[in-house]
């Protein structure tokens, strides 16, 4: 079969071909009007790296590049099929509507849902706001209690704080040093007034995976709705909303190699979950999310979900291979390196490390040819240490020394080796400049020193 992928970045094309040996298609790629063909996608793609000076991308939890196959699916809806999907009187509208409904089915299939349970949104932030505020407002004043955790995404925590200002009671569950909640704490926190439990599946900073199926079973037994922010989990680990008893699930397009500006919210129909709409308008998406559905973006989200479902096992094995290789190199050369979060019950593509006696911002500046972050992209402008790391009990100095390494579908072994070697070199250099490191080398216990203030 011949597949045509047009006008995509040469470096992404190269990585796409290198990363997909299981595909037997002949692929024709058009870059700036030139034709490049590969009879076997396992062959190396002979295109020079034209992005000279651009850093290696290691921030996949912040966002991911659009997969060329997703762009391939989107292009017709950006040019030819440009009708409003809500226009019911002509072919342009029917074509776009068909694309939207096909995407709805693709998203539903990935999580084991019914297509009618999928509502398209602008992203996981909107989906989280709709879930937390929508359920809270609909079931108030009879139920005015919500349970969440201290390490949720900022949009969930801020939504809860808004509700607190409206008179709702919010319980913020603590997590253990490994970042995972204690199920006994959850059970004890539930009351007859609890309307919702909101706990994320995979944490965006430290990658830990919560026991979602067990949480869902507890909530079902107590007849309480369960929402999970699965932006970092959908398409990366197997999820089934029915077997896990999930009532609402937030999904983001740009975390799974789809376009930015689109996401979805799964809302269970039986037993029915009712939400109060956050925004008003034309009543699209069955009245739960008014506004014209952006057909090209939704089609891209659907294509990304279909690809993720088909290649999930392969991608996960690739993440494990890269993560293990990276950690082996780091641990073989450096001491006093702490991995934040549970090393087993976590997504391997998110590696959060603290390098003791090294300032994280200094290390980030030294690694300027690698795109990294010290935490969530939504809070990275703050100089305060990560609230997620503080919640798991990390010392403030270690929290300030943490770096998140985000591996993705297009990350190569060469990039992992380069990043590991450069990290080792700069950590050693920065430690040599640190008087604290010198004291540690001399056997001084830093924690026993009483520092005087001047």
UniProtKB/TrEMBL annotation:
Residues 56-418 form the Aminotransferase class V domain. Keywords: Iron, Iron-sulfur, Metal-binding, Pyridoxal phosphate, Transferase. PROSITE patterns: AA_TRANSFER_CLASS_5. Gene3D superfamilies: Aspartate Aminotransferase, domain 1, Type I PLP-dependent aspartate aminotransferase-like (Major domain). Its EC number is 2.8.1.7. GO terms for biological process: [2Fe-2S] cluster assembly. Pfam families: Aminotran_5. It comes from the Eukaryota. Its cofactor is pyridoxal 5'-phosphate. One of its GO terms (molecular function) is metal ion binding. GO terms for cellular component: mitochondrial [2Fe-2S] assembly complex; nucleus. InterPro entries: Aminotrans_V_dom, Aminotrans_V_PyrdxlP_BS, Cys_deSase_IscS, Cysteine_dSase, PyrdxlP-dep_Trfase, PyrdxlP-dep_Trfase_major, PyrdxlP-dep_Trfase_small. Belongs to the class-V pyridoxal-phosphate-dependent aminotransferase family. NifS/IscS subfamily. NCBIfam families: IscS, PRK14012.1. This is cysteine desulfurase. It comes from Euphydryas editha (Edith's checkerspot). The lineage of its organism: Eukaryota, Metazoa, Ecdysozoa, Arthropoda, Hexapoda.
């Amino acid at each position: 079969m011949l597949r045509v992928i047009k006008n995509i970045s040469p470096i992404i094309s190269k990585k796409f071909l290198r990363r997909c040996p299981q595909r037997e298609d002949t692929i024709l790629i058009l870059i700036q009007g030139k034709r490049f063909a590969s009879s076997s996608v396992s062959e190396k793609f002979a295109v020079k790296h034209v992005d000279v000076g651009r850093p290696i991308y290691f921030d996949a939890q912040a966002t991911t590049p659009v997969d060329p196959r997703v762009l391939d699916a989107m292009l017709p809806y950006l040019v030819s099929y440009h009708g409003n999907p809500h226009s019911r009187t002509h072919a342009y509208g029917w074509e776009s509507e068909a694309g939207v409904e096909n995407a709805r089915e693709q998203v539903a299939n990935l999580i084991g849902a019914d297509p009618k349970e999928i509502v398209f949104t602008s992203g996981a932030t909107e989906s989280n706001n709709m879930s937390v505020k929508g359920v809270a407002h609909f079931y108030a004043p009879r139920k005015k209690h919500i349970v969440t955790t201290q390490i949720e995404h900022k949009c969930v925590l801020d939504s809860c704080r808004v509700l607190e200002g409206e008179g709702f009671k919010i319980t913020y569950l603590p997590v253990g040093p490994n970042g995972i909640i204690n199920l006994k704490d959850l059970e004890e926190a539930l009351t007859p007034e609890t309307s919702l439990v909101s706990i994320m599946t995979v944490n965006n900073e430290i990658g830990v995976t919560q026991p979602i199926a067990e949480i869902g079973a507890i909530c079902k037994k107590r007849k309480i709705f369960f929402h999970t922010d699965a932006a970092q989990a959908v398409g990366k680990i197997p999820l089934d909303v029915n077997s896990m008893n999930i009532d609402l699930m937030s999904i983001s397009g740009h975390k799974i190699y789809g376009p930015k500006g689109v996401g979805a919210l799964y809302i269970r129909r039986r037993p029915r979950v009712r939400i109060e709409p956050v925004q008003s308008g034309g009543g699209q998406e069955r009245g739960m999310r008014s506004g014209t559905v952006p057909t090209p973006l939704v089609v891209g989200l659907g294509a990304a979900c279909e690809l993720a479902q088909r290649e999930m096992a392969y991608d996960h094995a690739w993440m494990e291979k890269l993560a293990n290789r990276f950690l082996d190199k780091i641990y073989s050369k450096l001491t006093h390196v702490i991995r934040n979060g549970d090393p087993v019950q976590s997504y391997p593509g998110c590696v959060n490390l603290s390098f003791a006696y090294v300032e994280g911002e200094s290390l980030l500046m030294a690694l300027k040819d690698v795109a990294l972050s010290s935490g969530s992209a939504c809070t990275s402008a703050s100089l305060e240490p990560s609230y997620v790391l503080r919640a798991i009990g990390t010392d403030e100095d270690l929290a300030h020394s943490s770096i998140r390494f985000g591996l993705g579908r297009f990350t190569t072994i060469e990039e992992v080796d380069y990043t590991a070697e450069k990290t080792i070199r700069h950590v050693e250099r920065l430690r040599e400049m640190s008087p604290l490191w010198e004291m540690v080398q001399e056997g001084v216990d830093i924690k026993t020193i009483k520092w005087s203030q001047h």
